[in-house]
Amino acid sequence: MAHYNTVLLLFILCQLSRAAQDYLPMSVCPPGAREWQIEADRKKCQQPTPDYLCAAIENWPGHFGEICTKFGLSPSGTCVVLNNLTHNVDSVSCNAQEGCPDKPYNPKELYNWPVCYGDFYGKDSEPDAEPGDSGLIIGVVLAIPLIIICSLVVVFILDKRFKWGLMTRLSSCVPERQEDDTENSLLDTNG
Ligand SMILES: *[C@@H]1O[C@H](CO)[C@@H](O)[C@H](O)[C@H]1NC(C)=O
Fold this sequence. Notes:
By secondary structure, the protein is α+β, with helices and mostly antiparallel strands. 42% of the residues lie in helices and 14% in strands. It has a domain at 24-131. Strands 1-3-2-4-5 form a five-stranded mixed sheet, with helices on one face.
């Protein structure tokens, strides 16, 4: 049993190290097919990861890296990037105004969409869409008790001014209300 666990652990470690084995940070990626081929020949990717890829680091515009991988088609409207932690291939939604991949593509043609090497994340990734709504809700929730309190104060003042006697009628309904002091002080400040 212990033997089996050791083998399993070695297998997992092997998989993990293989994932990042060929990663190298790059200052730029090949800008065209010819340069791409030169870099691919230099890196000499082999089975089971025979495909050379140079891509941007996810969420980190201006940083690039190259790996050996096995390509599949990338969906239209996404950019191929490298995960910052694992350096594995990720497909990320392209939110740039223009220049996003408009068809499924093989990542070895990534140089056709230079926007995927820049800041294509758009405004959606910034957390400024939500707070407007929650701010409105908080405002309404705070405003309702304020409006009620203000209305009560206005009624109270009008009641005193015009001697409607609402408060005396109220205090006769609720026994032992000691409102005389507050009533007098409010009356004083209001002349
Ligand atoms: C990516 O990793 C580097 C170093 O490992 C770190 O300095 C950087 O902040 C990371 N970028 C993001 C977007 O997480």
